[in-house]
């Protein structure tokens, strides 16, 4: 799966987890990744009820797997202001990797995507780069390498 530069969304202005999920769903609909915004919002909220997808150091990885998702997609969003989220360090988030996975890829692509991104988020060099740049090309290269399991 290739990470696409146009799936890097900067200065996203949302004020809550719900408004973020609606923003992601609207974007996914506009890119023909899904065909039903509300279903995606509901799927993201349901997943969040199981256990928070907030990590630490301003990062979250909300994700959904469902049959209405047409293709495996990673969307990176950098928020214009941090929002509250249940995280390991109790701090708000402002960097979001949203993972959208069709059910047919549930066991393979989904786990690989989460694993590769979560592993990179443990590396300070990667997290500092992601947090401190708004350069689309730098973000695209770093995230693509992360998803391929390369540094």
Largest sheet: 5 strands, mixed
List unreliable stretches of 5+ residues: none
Mean pLDDT: 90
Terminus-to-terminus distance: 17 Å
Assign an overall shape.
Answer: globular
Helix content: 40-55%
| Total number of helices | 5
The tally of strands reads 5
Which class best fits the helix and strand makeup?
Answer: alpha/beta
Give the amount of beta strand, in percent. Answer: 15-25%
Series of secondary-structure elements, N-terminal to C-terminal = EHHEEEEHHH
Rg measurement, Å: 14 Å
InterPro entries: PTrfase/Anion_transptr (IPR016152), PTS_EIIA_type-2_dom (IPR002178), PTS_IIA_fruc (IPR004715), PTS_SugarTrans_NitroReg (IPR051541)
Pfam family, one: PTS_EIIA_2
Keywords: Phosphoprotein, Phosphotransferase system, Sugar transport, Transferase, Transport
Domain PTS EIIA type-2: 1-146
